[in-house]
Recover the amino acids of this structure.
């Protein structure tokens, strides 16, 4: 089976298994989604969500976050991991976006203009900001109200893709973004890309665990070399 066919087979089976199409979990504007994605780095979803909500409750606007004493932003982010690192990073991102919009003393610009750019160009614009990587840029474009078909790859998605052989065993999460996106039809909608990401992520959370994956009940077992080897060893 060629690798593109395997990717589509995984999509069909896992979407059926976990109940696609999935409802988008976010209705944030792209700038808010970008900040939310930065908060989620190496943080549990519940904790990053609490930190985001507390940040919005403490500061009425993103320019207020940008211009506040860093220690106040850090306190507002206490629910997430490493608030002492994330507070200055988020402020730096907001300053950079404001600067690109022409005046650091004005409110940060809307990122809605990214909807009019090709996805590679929009992602490059975001990733040229220090601290914004491929996962964050894709999440900003796909999860926000922009709803652009850019595919993020989280640790669960990445693990499932590696075990199925969609990417090599030494390919990191960052480089995996372009490799895995290239396996999907270029005309897919944002909903299809979202379903693909969510289905592989759910499989990593519910079956293809990091430790002791449940290979015996995996619906991908017949095409998963790692799972077949594990079952033989039992």
């Amino acid at each position: 089976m060629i690798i593109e066919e395997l990717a589509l087979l995984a999509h069909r089976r896992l979407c059926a298994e976990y109940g696609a199409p999935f409802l988008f979990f976010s209705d944030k504007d792209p700038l808010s989604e970008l900040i939310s994605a930065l908060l989620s780095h190496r943080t549990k979803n519940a904790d990053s969500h609490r930190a985001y909500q507390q940040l919005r409750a403490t500061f009425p606007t993103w320019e207020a976050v940008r211009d506040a004493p860093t220690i106040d932003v850090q306190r507002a982010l206490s629910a997430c991991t490493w608030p002492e690192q994330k507070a200055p990073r988020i402020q730096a991102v907001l300053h950079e976006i404001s600067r690109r919009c022409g005046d650091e003393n004005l409110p940060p610009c809307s990122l809605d203009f990214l909807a009019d750019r090709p996805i590679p160009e929009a992602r490059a614009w975001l990733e040229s900001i220090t601290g914004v990587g491929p996962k964050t840029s894709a999440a900003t474009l796909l999860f926000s109200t922009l709803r652009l078909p850019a595919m993020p790859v989280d640790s669960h998605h990445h693990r499932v893709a590696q075990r199925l052989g969609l990417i090599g065993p030494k390919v990191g999460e960052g480089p995996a973004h372009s490799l895995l996106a290239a396996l999907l039809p270029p005309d897919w909608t944002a909903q299809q890309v979202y379903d693909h990401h969510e289905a592989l992520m759910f499989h990593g959370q519910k079956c293809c665990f990091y430790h002791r994956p449940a290979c015996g009940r995996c619906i991908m077992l017949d095409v998963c070399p790692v799972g077949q080897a594990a079952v033989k060893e039992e």
The first helix runs from residue 3 to 18. The two ends are 26 Å apart (CA to CA). The CA atoms of residues 93 and 130 lie 7 Å apart. DSSP finds twelve helices and no strands in the chain.
